[in-house]
Structures are given as structure tokens and as C-alpha cells.
Amino acid sequence: MSWNREQMCLRASQELKDGDYVNLGIGMPTLVANHIEKSLDITLQSENGMLGMGPFPFKGEEDSDLINAGKQTITSLPDTSYFSSAESFAMIRGGHIDLSILGALQVSRDGDLANWMIPGKMVKGMGGAMDLVAGVKKVIVLMEHNSKDGSSKIVENCSLPLTGKGVVNKIITNLGVFEVNNGINLIELADNVTKEDILEKTDTDVKFSS
For the stretch 29-42, what's the b/e string if a residue is b when 16 or more beta carbons lie within 10 angstroms of its beta carbon? Predict the structure, then answer.
């Protein structure tokens, strides 16, 4: 037993603080938008030039001209603003985004992140990930704990090309929540997951908080 994708996204949404400017990466992180507590003042930013994104539209209410960086249809808000991608990346590189939640292929014990390519496979481009991890104040990775072949995505050292070195602050997987601070530190177990499960399915040492 572990968290499903919706539970993972709900847990990730709890990392958002009132007043935060947040960038949600392509893939599962975009689903976090549907779980943001309505009482919080959270502004979502997209690399393709949008500040103030709403949740995903209901079926039949999509606007094909209104998309996020992952080309998914989204909704706008009364205070949404639009601008060029150059201005969008100036926000990111200038340190104006508080938090980014990204997917990953691998995260090392030192917080190194690999999430943009697998050698030998077609690569459409690195996207904005390298800018995000360099310019955003805090980076949280949201991913399945293990790949389809069962291999751990939390590793001693990344074997895939890096997006950034020492950039990840926290990891949320289907097995739990981990802080990256002088190694991998488990701070919360998912439902019905044991410490033994974590040790068995993680390819690096894990410290357990009290």
C-alpha cells in the first residue's frame, strides 16, 4: 500500500505557503493545481508566459488557445496576466519564483537532479528545468519512488545527464516525503508503508527522523 498519484499531488500541495509564486513542472506536478487550498493566495507561473493559472478545465470547457508549458489546456483567473517567454524566464532567472515542483528521472543523495533526457532516446528539448532549478528559491521533486523496471529513482549518484547539482530540497514519492540535507532524510511515511519498504526500494542510505 502507498499513496496514489492524487494523494501524492495533495501532499505536494501542502508544501505551498500563502503568497507563494509557484511553477509546476510538466507531468504529474501540473495536477497539484487541482489540490491547492482555496484559502491560500497562490500564484501559478508558466514558462510559456502566464502568471495566474487556474485549475484544469472541465470536459467540454477547454480553450485550445489557453495552455501551459506542457501544452495542456488550463483555465485563467480574473487577475491572470500574459507576457512573452523572455519575460517569463526573466522572472525565473531573477529569483522571483518561490517554489518549483518538478518531476524527475533520478535524484541523488546530494540533491543532484536528472530529469531532462535518457541517452539514446529522442529528446524534444530540455525545456525550462535548468533555469528553474538555478533560479527558483526552493525545488521539490514529485515522482514515483521506483521506475517501471523496479529500480530506485533516489540514488547514491545520478547516472543520467544532470539538470542541476545540489538543487533539490525535498522529494515526495508514493512511499513518503524526504528532505535532502546531508543525505536523504525520511520525514513522513505514506499510508501503510514501513521503514523496511523504504530501505528495500531506495538505492542509497536513508536516515529516519524521530
Answer: bbbbbebbeeeeeb
